[in-house]
Amino acid sequence: MKRKTFTAVTSQQVAQLAGVSQSAVSRTFTPGASISPATREKVLKAARELGYRPNAIARSLNTARSRIIGVVISYFDNQFYPQVLEALAQKLDTLNYHLLLFVGDREGNVDRIFDQIMQYRVDGIVLASVTLSLDLSEECLAAGIPVVLFNRSEESGMASSVNSNNEAAARQIAEFLLAAGHQRFAYVGGVADSSVNLARQRGYLAALQEQGVEDVRVVNGNYDAHQTARAAYALFSASPAPDAIFVANDHMAVIVMDVARYEFGLRIPEDVSIIGYDDIGPSGWASYALTSASQPVEAMVAATVDLLLKQIDSGTIEPEQVIVPGRLVVRHSARRPHRGTIDAEGNYVFQTQEDK
Question: If you count Cβ atoms within 10 Å of the first and of the last residue's Cβ in the chain, which end, N or C, has fewer?
């Protein structure tokens, strides 16, 4: 069957049918524009009759604003990022911005798809689980396009970033495990050189070392299911095996739990305590009940959008680094200390002396 062709309806035709000016049609379809309810209803009625839809591309050429935010994510295995994507899309929609998704590679470098992003005349860019090279950071700065790194950071400071307090949270995890009387510690990291992994590993090891614990097994799962399982095998095959493990995110932590239980017959938390990071959905499932450092998605998304819109509206890019505090949500995958666990709004959380 031959595809039907339609003649585009113009705003001028809508104005003629509604008996209003063309600018009234424009204001009707511009969120926040001043127009009387009666005029707006006449325009909408005429638009429905004619099948008119405003041309967003044409409007972006006139206003030099696309109202599109490019979002790059590369790690959908981790349920944290689909949750972030949904919250980000909903937040932008309330502000009449639209999210355009790009999928990066597993190495976490966005340079390969940067040209594609720029072709869409995006007003801003959010990079989640990926990073931007120094050259491209400079190019975005020169082009006046704000960039916010979500759950990542970069050394140059040329892009804004929003993170949870990775290092402080990792220290708190170490304090929790020490307070519960553990003796043999391990860390299962993500990608060894990622900013988030480095911060979590640094905080965990530093807190243990301050208490005289120097011998900590460090392996990397590279945020990959198969590599994480191999790393867990290596830990539990050792003699003696660790009795306390901090895993850099929940996606890998539940894999470590499965290997411990089903491949080595270990009891959690009686034989080994396991703590994750992110507090994603499966962490709260009864089958895992994973103690985890939470990342407050809604607050992090709100901070990200605030940074973007402030720089878009002002036309000035002044990078800011925002840290959003989380909390250690205590469930049943790790032995609890005798002190420090409190009930907060229906969740058990760990509170150190410094937090009180």
Answer: N
User: Are 203 and 169 contacting, i.e. CB atoms less than 8 angstroms apart?
Assistant: yes
The one-letter amino acid code at 316 reads: T
Sheet holding 216-220: strands in order across?
A: 216-220, 185-189, 244-247, 273-278, 291-294, 328-330, 347-350, 341-344
How do residues 146-181 score in pLDDT, each as one tens digit?
999 999 887 777 789 999 999 999 999 999 999 999
Q: Are residues 177 and 241 in the same domain?
A: yes
* CATH number of the domain enclosing 147: 3.40.50.2300
Angle of CA points 182, 275, 166, to nearest 5°: 110
Kindly state whether residue 356 falls inside one of the protein's structural domains.
no
**Closest by Cα among 249, 324, 245 to 280:** 249
Return d(Cα 135, Cα 143) in angstroms, integer: 12
Q: How far, in Å, CA of 233 to CA of 40, rounded?
A: 65
State which amino acid sits at residue 153.
Answer: S
Q: Does residue 127 share a domain with residue 186?
A: no
Mean pLDDT by 10 residues, the chain (356 residues): 56 84 80 81 85 64 72 85 94 91 73 78 87 77 87 82 94 95 96 90 97 95 94 96 96 97 96 96 92 95 95 88 92 85 60 56
C-alpha separations of 299 from 123, 164, 305 in Å: 22, 10, 10
Tell me whether residue 2 is in a domain: no
